[in-house]
């Protein structure tokens, strides 16, 4: 492997001191040269080097290398137990066997999904020896967007050469969405892939299930300790120390095989006092022993080296120029190389000896020692480090050191400059993390930081943190300018929408600002894109669909000028809803599929969740319940936590009805309970009302009229009097308009029902989705009145409106009365005439057949010719057996260790070969052809 490789494995001869200092943005430049995004830190992908004298952990190697059934191995133990070194030895052993390998060291910043994804994609690129992109290849089979887990599994499944991935410092990962990602991936790893994890704590990655299935193993702290034989070998390789067998035995007893303790003894045995102490009583605990030995190791260093060690101990990572800035030592590179060569708990982070890092155990000891010299010593180190990092465009490390030396103005000003990039790039959790560590008065003095932090907290729905920032903005309304981010109007407009649920005020504020048409770049482009989205939402609600299209075009233009994909996710979701309410469901689905193919696949927060919410709504109306369930599994929690009221309502109603359609009534109710909880805690009364009106609908569907009336009378009245012509997306899905009509029909108050239908229709024209639902309700009204022909005329109108978009659920959800009329209409089509006048056409027949099949009606059709168009493969026959057992797509994927999209690909081929359109038809046809018993 060439020396420039980030995976150089052997460092028996560390590089000599070099004058090739790290340049500004060294990590970023290195990542760019390799084709990675600039936010990829290459040192995180660098494998710890092998040093002379490292003890081969043969027992552990044999354990993990001889069991081919293992796919996950976790090395778990406190600091200093040699997890990284052992992982490196396993990696070297795998490479000797011809495996492809890749390494990733996690840190706290990886809890931001955007950051994490960038580095994981880089890992996959290194594993495959070429650039990899989650958006580069998509399954061509269906509507479900692939998340990072599916992409990663599909990419790994296509490998012929075995591969192993090593992830160190896993305890840094706390984000629940990322832990769910790992649970999903590790449960479905291909047989020729092995993931090794190093962690101080047992990670929450579904280990219990993996171990029960015998595909995972845990190497615990006791396993990581050196055996007496390994301690003997360790000191045998240090011949110059001349350690006796008795001394080795005493060291083993003192350390109990703790690798860091053994290494500290090796470094400290030069001291006669330490050797003499081996004969004394063993009364030290691990921490006391480490401090005792570290003190002795430090005392063996020259005063100059001690000063260097202490002052650089506060650095998260070290480079020669940074160390020179902190210590004043011009020979910092030579000192770093010398420390690394001596094994003094310093390791290189790259193959060029540019960046280094202390072992956490040793850096903690050094920092505590420095602290005993007084707070001023710490403050000076952090101050110099902050200034150097700021000058070299390392904002995160500059903020860290500025906060540590309590230079809050420097930290706040640095975050202000960096925050525009964080918001536009959707690194909201990172901005929140640093914002939370600043004194509020420092934030309040910086209007730009107030506005940018407010955007992040709004989209993350952190209401308690957000309120003080909104109060700061109110007196500044109408002042300042968007370019230096001192005008809060656009941010306040977003708060009206996301916090106060006042879309009219939000749209008015955006239009009054008069800046949406401006052509700006950078963060102003983000603000303008977000404002254009607000404007588009208002246009959709008011029925100005062309105006919405124009506003969305503006939003996309701002996105192209640097507004960030964050804006684009919402733009795509609003575009989908604009199409859907106009009756263009198939166009909406195609658009949402295309957008999902371009979205960052792990973007399960904020904009990605908004896109998923709209997609769920569309999938439900198209009756694609399997894909909807897959999306719900991935996105429901993020949707609950991060998106706008209307998308939350649309997604939760779709999920609840999906469960109901699949016979899971308890789960359907649980989703409504969650929706109501969100409404109360937000607090959004309109969202609470949506959940309550859905309960009314369910009660009526179950024949519980009195209960439905009681539920309806307790629902707070609509507040739409301020803008009665506005119809929100949530109201299109469910609400008082439909609810009171259903109640009037159920109570035989036909006149009231007819009046309410007329009033609802008069509110807006051109809202085809709503017109379909009103026509279906009018169909039920006419049926209840005994006007059969009139009922069929109303049904035909609903069919004409819904046929182009092939809407399914909005017709079927109104119950058996509609299905009965559909069956009558179908029989009449077969006879060549329709009740109520008119002539049936093939499009009518195809659409009615689609609806009846979705309702479970057996149309009595057989597969063409009762013969296969092409023989089924063995994998497809296996899939058929799963279908017969009623196994879900997700369960099939788990059993076969493939992605859900791969399952859908096979199912699509099966349906095509059998000439069928769904699971039930596939089972019946396969039985008829004797393909299954």
Structural summary, described in words:
Residues 1-22 are annotated as: Disordered. GO terms for molecular function: DNA binding. Residues 865-930 form the HTH luxR-type domain. Among the domains are: 56-224, P-loop containing nucleotide triphosphate hydrolases (Rossmann fold); 228-299; 735-854; 864-928, Orthogonal Bundle (Arc Repressor Mutant, subunit A). The protein contains 48 helices and eight strands. It has a five-stranded parallel sheet, with helices on both faces. It has a three-stranded antiparallel sheet with strand order 6-8-7. Strand 7 and strand 8 form a beta hairpin. Helix 23 packs antiparallel against helix 24 (463-473) and helix 26 (503-513) crosses helix 27.
Compact summary:
The protein has 933 residues and is mainly α.
Looking at the structure, the CATH topology of the domain at 56-224 is Rossmann fold
Output the structural class. Answer: mainly alpha
Total count of strands: 8
Poorly predicted spans: 1-29, 136-145, 861-866
Radius of gyration: 32 Å
Arithmetic mean of pLDDT: 85
Percent of residues in helical segments? 55-70%
* Proportion in β-strands: under 5%
* CATH architecture descriptor text of the domain at 56-224: 3-Layer(aba) Sandwich
Q: Overall 3D geometry?
A: globular
Q: State the CATH superfamily name of the domain at 56-224.
A: P-loop containing nucleotide triphosphate hydrolases
* CATH class (first level) name of the domain at 56-224: Alpha Beta
Main β-sheet, in a few words? 5 strands, parallel
Instruction: Give the termini distance in whole angstroms.
Output: 55 Å
Side by side, the strands of the main sheet go: 2-3-4-1-5
Count of helical stretches = 48
């Amino acid at each position: 492997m060439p020396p420039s490789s980030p995976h150089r494995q052997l460092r028996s001869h560390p590089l000599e001191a070099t004058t090739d200092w790290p340049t500004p943005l060294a990590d970023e430049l290195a990542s760019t040269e390799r084709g990675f995004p600039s936010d990829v830190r290459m040192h995180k992908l660098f494998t710890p080097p092998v040093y002379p004298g490292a003890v081969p952990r043969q027992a552990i190697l044999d354990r993990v290398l001889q069991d081919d059934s293992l796919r996950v191995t976790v090395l778990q133990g406190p600091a200093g137990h040699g997890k990284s070194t052992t992982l490196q030895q396993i990696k070297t052993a795998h490479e000797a066997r011809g495996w492809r390998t890749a390494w990733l060291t996690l840190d706290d910043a990886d809890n931001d999904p955007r950051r994490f994804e960038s580095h994981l994609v880089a890992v996959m690129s290194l594993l495959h020896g070429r650039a990899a992109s989650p958006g580069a290849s998509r399954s061509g089979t269906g509507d479900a967007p692939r998340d990072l887990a599916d992409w990663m599994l599909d990419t790994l499944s296509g490998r012929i050469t075995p591969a192993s991935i090593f992830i160190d410092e896993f305890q840094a990962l706390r984000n629940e969405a990322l832990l769910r990602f790992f649970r999903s991936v590790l449960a479905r790893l291909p047989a020729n892939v092995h993931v090794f994890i190093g962690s101080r704590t047992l990670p929450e990655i579904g280990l219990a299930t993996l171990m029960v299935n015998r595909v995972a193993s845990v190497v615990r702290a006791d396993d990581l300790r050196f055996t007496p034989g390994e301690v003997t070998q360790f000191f045998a390789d240090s011949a110059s120390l001349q350690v006796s067998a008795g001394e080795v035995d005493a060291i083993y007893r003192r350390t109990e095989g703790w690798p860091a303790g053994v290494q500290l003894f090796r470094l400290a045995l030069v001291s006669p006092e330490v050797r003499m102490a081996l004969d004394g009583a063993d009364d030290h605990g691990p921490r006391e022993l480490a401090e005792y030995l570290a003190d002795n190791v430090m005392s063996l260093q020259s005063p100059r080296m001690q000063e260097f060690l202490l002052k650089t101990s506060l650095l998260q990572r070290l480079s020669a120029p940074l160390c020179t800035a902190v210590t004043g030592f011009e020979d910092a590179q030579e000192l770093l190389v010398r420390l690394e060569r001596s094994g003094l708990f310093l390791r290189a982070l790259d193959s060029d000896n540019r960046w280094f890092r202390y072992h956490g155990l040793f850096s903690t000891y050094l920092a505590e020692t420095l602290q005993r010299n007084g707070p001023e010593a710490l403050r000076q180190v952090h101050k110099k480090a902050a200034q150097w990092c700021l000058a070299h465009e390392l904002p995160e490390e500059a903020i860290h050191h500025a906060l540590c030396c309590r230079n809050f103005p420097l930290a706040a000003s640095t975050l202000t400059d960096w925050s525009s990039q964080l918001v536009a790039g959707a690194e909201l959790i990172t901005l929140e993390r640093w914002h939370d560590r600043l004194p509020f008065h420092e934030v309040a003095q910086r209007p730009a930081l107030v506005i940018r932090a407010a955007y992040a907290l709004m989209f993350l729905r952190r209401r308690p943190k957000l309120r003080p920032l909104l109060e700061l903005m109110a007196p500044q309304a109408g002042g300042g300018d968007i370019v230096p981010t001192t005008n809060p109007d656009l941010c306040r407009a977003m708060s009206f929408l996301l916090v106060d649920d006042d879309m009219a005020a939000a749209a008015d504020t955006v239009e009054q600002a008069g800046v949406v048409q401006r052509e700006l770049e950078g963060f102003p482009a983000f603000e303008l894109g977000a404002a254009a989205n607000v404007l588009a939402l208002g246009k959709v609600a008011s029925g100005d669909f062309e105006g919405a299209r124009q506003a969305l075009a503006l939003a996309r233009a701002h996105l192209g000028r640097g507004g960030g994909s964050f804006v684009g996710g919402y733009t795509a979701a609003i575009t989908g809803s604009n199409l859907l309410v106009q009756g263009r469901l198939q166009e909406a689905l195609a658009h949402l599929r295309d957008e999902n193919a371009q979205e960052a696949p792990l973007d399960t927060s904020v904009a990605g969740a908004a896109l998923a919410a709209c997609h769920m709504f569309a999938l439900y109306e198209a009756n694609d319940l399997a894909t909807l369930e897959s999306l719900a599994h991935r996105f429901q929690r993020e949707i609950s936590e991060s998106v706008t009221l209307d998308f939350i309502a649309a997604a939760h109603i779709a999920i609840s009805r999906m469960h109901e359609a699949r016979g899971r009534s308890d789960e359907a109710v649980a989703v409504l309970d969650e929706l109501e909880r969100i409404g109360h805690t937000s607090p959004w009364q309109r969202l609470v009302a949506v959940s309550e009106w859905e309960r009314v609908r369910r009660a009526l569907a179950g024949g519980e009229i009195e209960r439905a009336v009681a539920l309806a009378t307790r629902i707070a009245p609509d507040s739409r009097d301020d803008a009665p012509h506005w119809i929100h997306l949530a109201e299109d899905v469910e609400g008082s308009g439909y609810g009171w009509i259903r109640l009037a029909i159920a109570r035989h108050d036909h006149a009231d029902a007819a009046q309410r239908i007329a009033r609802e229709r008069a509110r807006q024209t051109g809202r085809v989705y709503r017109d379909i639902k009103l026509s279906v309700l009018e169909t039920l009204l006419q049926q209840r009145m005994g006007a059969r022909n009139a009922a069929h005329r109303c049904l035909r109108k609903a069919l004409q409106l819904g046929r182009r978009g092939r809407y399914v659920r909005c017709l079927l959800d109104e119950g058996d009365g509609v299905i009965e009329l559909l069956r009558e209409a179908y029989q009449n089509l077969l006879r060549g005439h329709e009740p109520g006048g008119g002539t049936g056409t093939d499009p009518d027949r195809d659409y009615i057949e689609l609806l009846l099949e979705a309702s479970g009606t057996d149309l009595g059709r057989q597969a063409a010719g009762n013969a296969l168009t092409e023989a089924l493969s063995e994998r497809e026959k296996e899939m058929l057996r799963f279908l017969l057992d009623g196994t879900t797509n997700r369960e099939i994927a788990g059993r076969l260790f493939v992605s859900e999209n791969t399952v859908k690909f096979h199912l699509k081929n099966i349906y095509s070969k059998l000439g069928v359109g769904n699971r039930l038809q596939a089972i019946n046809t396969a039985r008829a052809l004797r393909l299954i018993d």
